[in-house]
Amino acid sequence: MSQATIDADARPDPLGVGAEHPDYLRADSGLRSWLLTKDHKRIALMYYVSVVLFLGLGGIFALVLRTELLTPEQTFIDANTYNQMFTLHGVTMVWLFLIPSIPTIFGNFVLPIMLGAKDLAFPRINLASYYVFLLSAIILLGAMLAGGADTGWTFYVPYSTTSPTAVTWMGIGIFVNGISSIMTAVNFIVSTHTLRAKGLNWHRMPLFVWALYGTSIIILFATPVLGMSLILVALDHSFGLGLFDPRYGGDPVLYQHLFWFYSHPAVYIMVLPTFGVISEIVCSFSHNPPASYRAIAYSSLGIAFVGFFTWGHHMFVAGLSEFDAGVFGALSMFVAIFSAIKVFTWVATLRGGSISFATPMLYFLWFLFLFVFGGMTGVAVATQSLDVHWHDTYFVVAHFHFIMVGGTLTGFLAAAHYWFPKMFGRLYDERVGLLTSVAVFIGFVFTFLPQFLLGNAGMPRRYFTYPERYQWLNVLSTGGAWLLGVGLLLALLNLIVALKWGKRAGPNPWGSRSFEWITASPPSKHNFEETPDIARSAYEYSLSEEVAHERAKAR
Amino acid sequence: MNELLRTILFLPRQASTIADDIDKLHYFVIIATMGGALLVTLVGGFFLFRYRRTAVQKDPSRRVLGATHAIWLEAVVVVALFGMFISWWVIGFWQFMAIRVPPENALEIYVTGKQWMWKFAYPQGASTISTLYVPAGRPVKLILTSRDVIHSFYVPDFRLKQDALPGRLSTLWFEVKEPGRYDILCTEYCGVSHSTMWGEVIALPPEEYERWLQGEAPGPDVAGPVDLRPSAVLDYAPAEPVSMVRQGELAAAQHGCLRCHTLDGTPHLGPTWAGLYGTTIPLEGGGNTRVDEAYITESMMDPLARIHAGYQRIMPSYLGQIRPAETSAIIELMKSLRDVRPKPGAEAPWGTVDVPETREGRQ
Ligand code: HEM
Ligand SMILES: [Cu+2]
C-alpha cells in the first residue's frame, strides 16, 4: 500500500541502529519478569492488555444498552439492569478506558524514548500505578457484582446518596483510580522536566510530549477534587454525613459544582492525548513539520488552563444564577477556539506535504470530521437558550460521544496502528486496516448521528423505555452500534494477526523524524545504548533520514 | 422555511411563545456547525489527495516544507470564528434571560417532583397529579421543588426545562400559544421509573380554565396528539377547593410559625409577614436580600444561613419537618399579605385557625 512501507521492507535496518541487544520483549523471560518489570515498555503492554479488555467490556455493556433500546417497551432486560448497565458502561469507559488509554499505553511506551531517556523518572511508581489501576478496576467491577450502582457516571446527589446500591464502593474505586492517574501524571511531568536528552530543548520535543504534559497538569489539579468529592458522596451515602444531601442540610448543587470542576477538565484529559497522537501522525505521514509548532504546543496548555473555568455550562438549568450562566457560557467559547487553532494547524500541515496514505491517516480524516462536528456542537450546547432544550437529552449524548468516541477512540486506533511497528517490530495488513477503519467510521456515524435528532425531538437520556415516536431513530442507532462493534473487533484481530504474521517493520517504516523512531523497532530493553545527543527538532523533514538520524544519535 | 427546517431537524411543535425564536438560533447554529465540520474535512481530504506522495514525487514543486505562512490565514479564520461564537453567545444569553425572567402578571402554579410523578398545586386550591392545567395565551410561572431526588421538568414543545431540587425552589415560565396537550418529561435521572415519569400540560382557553378551577371537568375536545401514558391517574380539582392561602394559614399555625411571626404587622420575636414578601431586607453581617420564594424556602430549611438584621438566631430548621406542599402554601400566604400595612395592636387573623392541641399531624 503505502510507499513508506515498501521502502522500509527493502531496507531492514537503514539507520544501522541494529539489534546488538535483544529487544525488550525478549530481554527477559518468565511471568515474573513481566509482572514485576520496571521497564516502561513492558508496563505499557500490561496496560494495553488491560485497557483493551475494559474497552471490550464497556463495548459489550453498550451493545446490551443499544439492543434494549430497539423497541420502545422492555426488550430483554429489566429497568434495574438497564440502569446499572449504563452506569457501569459510563464508569468503565471513562475511568478504565478513555482516561488511561493513550497516556498509559502509548505515553508510557514512547514518552521516555521521545525524551531520549532509558525509562521514566520513577520506574517503580510506574509499576505501582499499574497495580493501583488494576485494583481500582477490580473494586469498580466488583461493586457491580455486589449490588451494582444505578446512578450514572455523574453520581448526582441526592439520588446517589439515597440509592441502596453499591455507591460507596464505586466512590472508593474511582478514588483509587484517581491515585493511579496522579502517579502517572507526576511521573510524566518529572520525566519531561528532568530526563530530556542533551540538546533536547522544549521547542524540539515531539508534540505528543507537550500533549501529555498538558494532560498531566490537568490530572494533577483536577483529579484530587473528584476523588475527594466522591469520597464525600460515599460518606454521605454510608454515614449520612450530610454535605450534599438536603435531608441533612446539604446542598446537591454544591456537589454538581465540585463534580464538574473535575469532570469538565476530565473531558480534556480524555482528548488532549489524542491531539498529541494526531499531531505526530499528521507530521509523520505528510513528511512535513507542523505548520506552527508553537500553536499546537501552547494551545494544549491553553486548553488545560481555560478548561478549568467552564464547568458551569453543565448546569444551566440546575439553578445557576443568570449571571453565572452568562459567564460560563462566554468562557466556554474560548476552549473551542484553542481546539480550532489545532485543527487549522493540522490541516495547514498537510498543505505542501508529501503524504503517504495509510490507516492512521484515514483515522485522522475521520477524526477531523467527528471532532470538529463534536466540538462545534459543544459550542452549540454552550449557547444557553439552546442548551435549555438540549440539556440531558440525546443531543448531549451524541455531542460527547462524537468527541470522546469520535475523537479519543479514533485517536486510540490511529495510535495503535501508528506505533504498532515500533512496539512489536511488525507491520499490520494495510488493506484490512483501511477496511476496518471505514467500517468503524460508518458504524460510528450511524450510531450517533441519529442521536442528535433524537435529542432535538426531545428524547431524554438514561431512558429505559421511550415514547414510540422515537423508535426508528433508535433502531438506526442500534444497527450502527453493532457495525461499530464488528469494525472494532476486526481491527483488533488484524493487529493480533500481525503480531505473529506481519512483515518485519524495520526501525522507521513511516520515515518519521520523531525521536522514538531512531531506536530499533522494537527497542532494546534500555532503549538506547548511550544517552543520545539531539541536534535537531522532532520534525526536521528537510533532512534526509540518515542525516536526521546522525543529528539525533548517541555519540 | 421554518416548517421545513423544523421537520428536517426533528424538532417538535413550537407551542410556546419563545419556541420560534429559539428555533431560529438553532437552525443557524446547526447549519454552521454541520457546514464547518464538512468544510474542514473536505479541505483535509482534498489536501490528502493533492499532496499524496506519488504526485509530489512527480512534481516536487508542490512541496512546501513547513507551511508557516498559513499562520496569517489561520489568525484571520480564528478571529472570525470567535466572532461567530460570541454572537451565538450574545443571542443565546439574551434569549436565556427572556426564558428566566417571568413577566409580572404571570399566573403561579406550584410543582413538586416526586418519584415518579409530578404534582401540581394551584393557588386557588385545586391540585392535580401528572396533568398540568394552564390557560393558553397567558404567561404561567411554575415554582418547582422536589420531594426526594433531583428531577427536571421538561416540555419539548415549549423548548423549556428546569431542574426541581429538594429543599429549594426554582422557577420556570412560559406562555402557551394554542389550547392543546403537550408532553412533560423528566430529564434528570431519578431512579428505576425515570423513563416513565411522564405528564402532560393541558392548555385550555382562558374561560374554560377559570371554570375548571371552579371544579368543572374540562371538555373532552382538547386538541393535540397524546402518546404518553401518564404514570399516575389524574385527579380533578376538588368540588370545594381550599385556597392555598387558607392552607398556608393552617400549616403556619400547625408548625408553630405563628408563635414568632405575626400576620398583621404586630412586632414579635420574628419579622412580621405583613408586607414582607417582595421587599428588600438588610442582613445581619451586612448586605441585603430580596424576600422571594428562594429566600423564604431557605429561611425555613436553613434559617441561620441569612438572618434578617436585628432578629435573634432562634428559628429552628423545618427541613424534613414540613412538606413541600406546605412550604408552597406558606409562601402563598405571605404573598397574600403583601399589601397588609402594619396595624399595631390589631387582632391576628390566625385567630380564625384552629390550632391543634397536640403536635401530631406535624409530619
Ligand atoms: C475536547 C473536547 C470535548 C470533550 C471531550 C467534551 C466532552 C463532553 C462530555 C463528556 C459531556 C457530557 C457530560 C455528561 O453530562 O455526562 C459534555 C457536555 C457538554 N459540553 Fe463538551 N466536550 C468537548 C468540547 C466542548 C466544547 C468545545 C464546548 C463548548 C464550547 C463544550 C460544551 C459542552 C456543554 C455546554 C456540555 C453540557 C451540555 C448539557 O449537559 O446540556 N464541549 N462534553
Ligand atoms: Cu425524575
Automatic annotation (TrEMBL), chain A:
<keyword id="KW-0349">Heme</keyword>
<dbReference type="GO" id="GO:0004129">
    <property type="term" value="F:cytochrome-c oxidase activity"/>
</dbReference>
<keyword id="KW-0249">Electron transport</keyword>
<keyword id="KW-0479">Metal-binding</keyword>
<feature type="transmembrane region" description="Helical">
    <location>
        <begin position="325"/>
        <end position="350"/>
    </location>
</feature>
<keyword id="KW-0812">Transmembrane</keyword>
<protein>
    <submittedName>
        <fullName>Cytochrome c oxidase subunit I</fullName>
    </submittedName>
</protein>
<keyword id="KW-0472">Membrane</keyword>
<feature type="transmembrane region" description="Helical">
    <location>
        <begin position="432"/>
        <end position="452"/>
    </location>
</feature>
<feature type="transmembrane region" description="Helical">
    <location>
        <begin position="472"/>
        <end position="497"/>
    </location>
</feature>
<dbReference type="GO" id="GO:0009060">
    <property type="term" value="P:aerobic respiration"/>
</dbReference>
<feature type="transmembrane region" description="Helical">
    <location>
        <begin position="259"/>
        <end position="283"/>
    </location>
</feature>
<feature type="transmembrane region" description="Helical">
    <location>
        <begin position="127"/>
        <end position="146"/>
    </location>
</feature>
<feature type="transmembrane region" description="Helical">
    <location>
        <begin position="362"/>
        <end position="382"/>
    </location>
</feature>
<feature type="transmembrane region" description="Helical">
    <location>
        <begin position="394"/>
        <end position="420"/>
    </location>
</feature>
<keyword id="KW-0679">Respiratory chain</keyword>
<dbReference type="GO" id="GO:0015990">
    <property type="term" value="P:electron transport coupled proton transport"/>
</dbReference>
<keyword id="KW-0408">Iron</keyword>
<feature type="transmembrane region" description="Helical">
    <location>
        <begin position="45"/>
        <end position="65"/>
    </location>
</feature>
<dbReference type="GO" id="GO:0020037">
    <property type="term" value="F:heme binding"/>
</dbReference>
<feature type="transmembrane region" description="Helical">
    <location>
        <begin position="166"/>
        <end position="190"/>
    </location>
</feature>
<keyword id="KW-1133">Transmembrane helix</keyword>
Automatic annotation (TrEMBL), chain B:
<dbReference type="InterPro" id="IPR014222">
    <property type="entry name" value="Cyt_c_oxidase_su2"/>
</dbReference>
<dbReference type="Pfam" id="PF00116">
    <property type="entry name" value="COX2"/>
</dbReference>
<dbReference type="GO" id="GO:0004129">
    <property type="term" value="F:cytochrome-c oxidase activity"/>
</dbReference>
<keyword id="KW-0479">Metal-binding</keyword>
<dbReference type="InterPro" id="IPR045187">
    <property type="entry name" value="CcO_II"/>
</dbReference>
<dbReference type="GO" id="GO:0005507">
    <property type="term" value="F:copper ion binding"/>
</dbReference>
<protein>
    <recommendedName>
        <fullName>cytochrome-c oxidase</fullName>
        <ecNumber>7.1.1.9</ecNumber>
    </recommendedName>
</protein>
<keyword id="KW-0560">Oxidoreductase</keyword>
<dbReference type="InterPro" id="IPR002429">
    <property type="entry name" value="CcO_II-like_C"/>
</dbReference>
<dbReference type="InterPro" id="IPR036909">
    <property type="entry name" value="Cyt_c-like_dom_sf"/>
</dbReference>
<feature type="region of interest" description="Disordered">
    <location>
        <begin position="341"/>
        <end position="363"/>
    </location>
</feature>
<keyword id="KW-0408">Iron</keyword>
<feature type="domain" description="Cytochrome oxidase subunit II copper A binding">
    <location>
        <begin position="104"/>
        <end position="215"/>
    </location>
</feature>
<dbReference type="GO" id="GO:0042773">
    <property type="term" value="P:ATP synthesis coupled electron transport"/>
</dbReference>
<keyword id="KW-1133">Transmembrane helix</keyword>
<dbReference type="GO" id="GO:0016020">
    <property type="term" value="C:membrane"/>
</dbReference>
<dbReference type="InterPro" id="IPR009056">
    <property type="entry name" value="Cyt_c-like_dom"/>
</dbReference>
<keyword id="KW-0812">Transmembrane</keyword>
<keyword id="KW-1278">Translocase</keyword>
<keyword id="KW-0472">Membrane</keyword>
<dbReference type="GO" id="GO:0016491">
    <property type="term" value="F:oxidoreductase activity"/>
</dbReference>
<feature type="transmembrane region" description="Helical">
    <location>
        <begin position="70"/>
        <end position="94"/>
    </location>
</feature>
